[in-house]
Design a protein that fits this description.
The protein is α+β, with helices and mostly antiparallel strands. The chain has a single domain (about 1-145), classed as Alpha-D-Glucose-1,6-Bisphosphate, Chain A, domain 4, CATH 3.30.530. Helix content is about 30%, strand content about 50%. It is built from 4 helices and 7 strands, in the order E-H-H-E-E-E-E-E-E-H-H. A 7-stranded antiparallel sheet has the order 1-7-6-5-4-3-2. Strand 6 and strand 7 form a beta hairpin. The longest helix is centred in the C-terminal third of the chain and has 19 residues, at about 130-145.
Amino acid sequence: MSEMSTNITFKGTPDQVLAAIRDYERYPEFIPGVTKVEVLPAKKPGSTCQVRYSLKLIKTFQYTLDMFEEPGRVWWSLDSSNIMKTSDGSWMLVDTGKGCTRATYSLDVAFSGFVPQRVVDQVTKSSLPALIAGMQKLINAKSKDQK
C-alpha cells in the first residue's frame, strides 16, 4: 500500500480549481500519462459519476473510480482496475484569498499481485509534480474558457 498527501497552492479560485478537477475528459490534454478518459453514469449511491482512466506510465493500465463531491471536496474510491486493488483519494480545497486556492491532494493505492516498487512510485509519488503542473495548466485553460 502506498499513501501520500500534499498541499499545493493553485492560482485560481476554489470554483476554478473545482471546475478543472471535474473536467475529466480534458485530463489527457494536460496530465502526463493519462491517455484516455471516459465519464460514465454513477453506480454507487451518492456518487456523481464514474470515471474510467487509461494511464500509460511504465505500462498501460486502466481503472474506474466512483467520484463523489461536496462543496470544497472531491473524493473517489476504486470500482475496478486491471492492476490496482484499492485507490482512494481526495482533493480538499480552501480559499486563501487573492484568487488562490490551497488544495490538499491525498491518495492511498494498493496494487494486485506483485508490482515493482518503481511502478508504485511512478503512479504515486513520481508523477505528482507532473499532475500538479498539469492541473495548473487545466485551471488556466478553464479560466480562459470562462472569459
